[in-house]
Amino acid sequence: MKFETFRAGIHPQRFQYQSFEPCSINQPCVWEDSQINLLLENANRALGELNAFSLIVPDIDLFIQMHVAKEAQTSSRIEGTQTEIAEVLMSKQQIGPEQKDDWQEVHNYIDAMNGAILALKTLPLSNRLLKQTHALLMRGVPRENKYPGEFRTSQNWIGGSNLTDAAFIPPHPDSVVDLMSDLEKFWHNQTITVPHLIRIALSHYQFETIHPFLDGNGRIGRLMIPLYLVSHGLLAKPSLYLSDFFERNRGSYYDALTRVRASNDLIHWVRFFLAGVAETATKGRDVFQKILRLRTEVETLVQGLGKRGPLALQALQYLYSKPIITTSELSIALGIATPTANRLIRELMRIGVLFEITGYQRGRVFSFEPYLKLFLS
Length: 377
Hints:
Elements: E1 9-10, E2 21-22, H1 34-56, H2 60-78, H3 85-88, H4 100-119, H5 127-137, H6 173-188, H7 196-210, H8 217-231, H9 243-248, H10 250-263, H11 266-303, H12 309-321, E3 324-326, H13 327-334, H14 338-350, E4 355-356, E5 365-367, H15 369-372
Antiparallel strand pairs: 1-2, 3-5, 4-5
């Protein structure tokens, strides 16, 4: 496969429409475009720096939880959910009735991501793993009738109200299993020399083009990126998430995918993807640097609380994984009485660690605002 002469696929005539049947992806790749080489070098360097930080930051899994929560919220927002990051971090009981479905979808994504990373310890990246992950993603939401955990057996489409006015019609369902099998082989084919970041760029395009599930394809396709990087050892922890880059450049993202199918412009898509990896990895590295600085600053502050200092340090460890809390949640987490938790929260508010965000006299909610802001910039 030469990028400059790439042919994306064909449009066979069906009964009343033409589906798009992409070409096989499990083959060697070559290109002459020198910009791809430069972008690939930049992306690999940024990814390596991000991975280095994920290996040296103490208690990294606490902060990875926040990365996963942010990714779940952003990836779901691309699909139309309205849940804000603060709401994601609250318990379901604190969410209004009109937001509960969106909240559930985002938390299904968190469960799906965490479940998939855990499964990588015993399973390779595979269609089996993607199906398991999809089943978790679609669990208990209004779209549950869309066959969670199963490849589609009916025709789907993107844009428009039906097949006759659709913006894009993915492959016929009879082709899905073979195309996904070809994609899986591409992930693990050691007889071809294709750099990993090129493989995942092509894989994301191919997955979104196949659209193998009736629903949830966008989220699974984006989640597949960190899964690939972890499973092939490019990242020790799932610390790279491109949904924020795709969401901020949504028009360019969809345009780049469309240009491959419509005009065989694979080079434009690969350039866009590699630029996204470099930008996102650099941003992730910067967040880890800021976390280390913030951790030093706030630990210095709480150590000045005298006898409450040790308990405040315990509270900080909890806040890194759950930066929005109630008094009762802190009381339970630290195993302390409610009055003690209240006094501790007042002290943390006084030194600028916690901020009250509800304004209620009872059932108040508090935010570890300096930490939370690191993931919102």
